[in-house]
Automatic annotation (TrEMBL):
This is DNA-binding transcriptional regulator, MerR family. Keywords: DNA-binding. The keyword DNA-binding applies. GO terms for molecular function: cobalamin binding; DNA binding; metal ion binding.
Length: 308
């Protein structure tokens, strides 16, 4: 069975010289076509890309920050000719003015990227806290942090964020979510008992933590085993504590065969438990799934599934 999709600008940082980007990278991050970027570069001299031996343009971290700032203004209706006439402080001031009117969350996302690249813990914390105050905790995670993590993931895949930078920001976010979880009361009278875990080889814990927060907030009894858990380790707890639901989030690439075997093993070992799956790797699962296995592609559907 399947449920329908678990679905401040101050860029004056110094990004290490190892960060270089192609024009395609810049297009992906700004949402502005490469052809348009080339025209802006030639017509307005907003930045000056270097060229590799192959004569292809390459951009550094300062270029990325400049283009993120320009893209933010441009996507909010400011003409490029006006942007080009503004100094960097004036661009920042206009960006803050737009953001104060409740515009899109792209501004804090861009700031988080810049803070991460520069290991600026204090600024990262300030951005996070301001967005929690502005949006509330849940919307901060779904509208700012998740899109930010997607962009950081792309930077990592293209070699423009080193593992230390990814660990730096992920640990701050993990700590924030864990603190929020700890502040919620535990409902010992809940009818459903969820056991959350990530399978062996899976270490991306932030989605798991956020689901733990949501379930606990909605009055469910939740236990989490965390990341990299062998299946045999689940059995004693499930048997003794009468677990009704198992939840895991599958992000790391595995073969379709390995994925199907994992699902079959879960279903066979725990036939009386509802098994809830989310994450990008669930798309490759073959239908029909075992009767007690559910793919959840939206967070609200996860909560609905728990009420059954």
């Amino acid at each position: 069975m399947e449920h329908p999709a678990p679905n401040c600008l101050n860029l004056a940082f110094t990004i290490p010289a190892l960060n270089t980007f192609t024009i395609k990278d810049i297009e992906n991050f700004t949402g502005i076509k490469a052809h348009t970027i080339r025209i802006w570069e030639q017509r307005f001299q907003l930045f000056q890309a270097r060229r590799k031996d192959t004569n292809h343009r390459i951009y550094d971290g300062d270029d990325l920050k400049t283009l993120l700032r320009i893209a933010y203004l441009y996507h909010h209706g400011v003409k490029i000719s006006r942007i080009a006439a503004l100094s960097e402080p004036q661009q920042n001031e206009l960006s803050l003015e737009i953001a104060s009117k409740g515009a899109s969350p792209m501004l804090p996302i861009h700031e988080l990227i810049a803070a991460t690249l520069d290991y600026d813990h204090l600024h990262f914390e300030r951005i996070f806290s301001s967005q929690v105050l502005h949006l509330g905790f849940e919307r901060c995670i779904t509208q700012v942090i998740y899109p930010y993590l997607e962009r950081i993931g792309v930077l990592w895949l293209t070699g423009n964020v080193i593992p230390a930078q990814e660990h730096f920001s992920s640990n701050i976010i993990r700590t924030k979510i864990m603190t929020a979880i700890d502040g919620l009361p535990m409902n010992g009278d809940a009818k459903a008992h969820y056991l959350l875990f990530l399978p062996e080889g899976e270490f991306h814990e932030i989605p798991l933590l956020f689901v733990q927060y949501l379930l606990k907030k909605h009055g469910q009894l939740v236990t989490s085993f965390g990341a990299n858990v062998p299946l045999p380790d689940l059995q004693p707890f499930i048997t003794r504590k009468k677990v009704t639901h198992l939840y895991t989030h599958l992000l790391t690439n595995v073969t379709q065969q390995a994925m199907q075997r994992f699902i079959t093993d879960l279903s066979t070992q725990f036939p009386d438990v509802s098994i809830l799956l989310s994450g990008p790797q669930t798309w490759q699962l073959k239908q029909p799934l075992p009767a007690n296995v559910f793919v959840v592609r939206q967070l609200d559907k996860l909560l609905e599934a728990g009420r059954r």
